[in-house]
Amino acid sequence: MDRQQLRQQVLQELQHIAPELEPEALRSDRPLRDEVDLDSMDWLRFLGALHRRLGVNIPESDYHKLDSLDALIAYLEPHLT
């Protein structure tokens, strides 16, 4: 899977959690939770959905690394099998 396909899959899961999201308006270098206005439960549901969809386990100790869409994609990319 290339980076663009990964981004699309992440955005699809994000839209399930935040259906009002307009992906084209999302700034990928800004804090994702602020951009999409996700509370902590939404954030956990989103990460769980990514785990189910992509098969990537994201330990809680790594959550701080996932502050933006760009950072999330960069984290997920090498973990895909």
TrEMBL record:
SUPFAM superfamilies: ACP-like (SSF47336). Gene3D superfamilies: ACP-like. Signal peptide: none annotated. It comes from the Bacteria. Pfam families: PP-binding (PF00550). InterPro entries: ACP-like_sf, PP-bd_ACP. Residues 4-80 form the Carrier domain. This is Acyl carrier protein. It comes from Pseudomonas aestuarii. The lineage of its organism: Bacteria, Pseudomonadati, Pseudomonadota, Gammaproteobacteria, Pseudomonadales.
